[in-house]
Structure prediction request, 357 residues.
Amino acid sequence: MPRLSHCIGTDPAHRKEWGVSDVTGGDLCLALDFGGTKLAAGIVDWRSGHVIQQARCRTGEASGAEGQIADMLELVDGLLAAMPQGVRLTGAGVSFGGPVEAATGTVLQSHHVPGWDGLPLASRLSHRLGLPVLVENDANAVALGELLYGAGRGAVDLVYMTISTGIGGGVILGGELWRGHRGLAGEVGHMVVRPDGPLCTCGNYGCLEALASGLSIARRAREALASGAGSELLALAEGDPQSITAELVFRAARGGDEVAQSVIAAVATDLGLGIAMLCSILDPARVILGGGVAKAGEQLLAPVRESFRRHAFPMLVDRVEIVRAAAIDEGGLLGAAALVARAAARDRTCQMHVGIP
Ligand SMILES: [Zn+2]
Prediction:
């Protein structure tokens, strides 16, 4: 069968030699991360969260679901071929960028790539790989990964919020993922924090995503420039307002640019307000911010904490930790591994069943 698509720009930078401790470590799993246009596969020690091998590629949106699956299997085959003989895998975890039905491992929808709706991903991969496969929405998986291996260790109740192109989230209550009645829990990006705010991709106005996602940060900066404010931002974007990104806004703010600083202050205010609302309802020990925008670190976290303190229920003000995710680029792989770890912990004999998280 001819390939339906091919990986664009496969990244060999993560390849390394297998070490002796990797082989004897036991307890390894396959971890797969299906992003909108990025795929990653890894072999991970699910007890420690140590990523032993990984391979990544970009994939065209036009390749559709079948093309993405073919691309992912190409990455996986490369990893398995390089694996020393005698190494066994416990199972495979999949972090998927869209809503899924975790109980059956079925993708409900992809916002970015056609052909995914209703696709039984767990059974497809399980049949091909000969392994039990668990599938979870990416923000949920990463929340679990942070709980087991990252910034959530030691917490029982936490909220994970990913701030990148959009804003998503995962909620852990009592040490377990809280999916909600329809699997839609944790859609923190669509809390309306400013009813008179801008239109969101979901059709409502003033959602957190429409105010504080990476795309929204860039849009707010463009709006500030259009109002005539002088700024270094345009020069950083080489004169093209459409080239302004959240990363450039943070960079300009670090350089003292007042427009960029005021955009970040406004964004942090909205994030802190949203987090205060979440904390009033859930009373988590920790709120973890991940996604590309969280790479700004304290430049974002410090004003977010300040806004949280202004808006939070007074008994919570000094009691909720707001921290950066431990794994941002590898979050999806660790989240996928965490699914296997959870399933293995539930079934001490590691006889996981396909599709049962
Ligand atoms: Zn929305």
Remarks:
- Residues 117 and 191 are 25 Å apart (CA to CA).
- Residues 1-5, 353-357 have pLDDT under 50 and may be disordered.
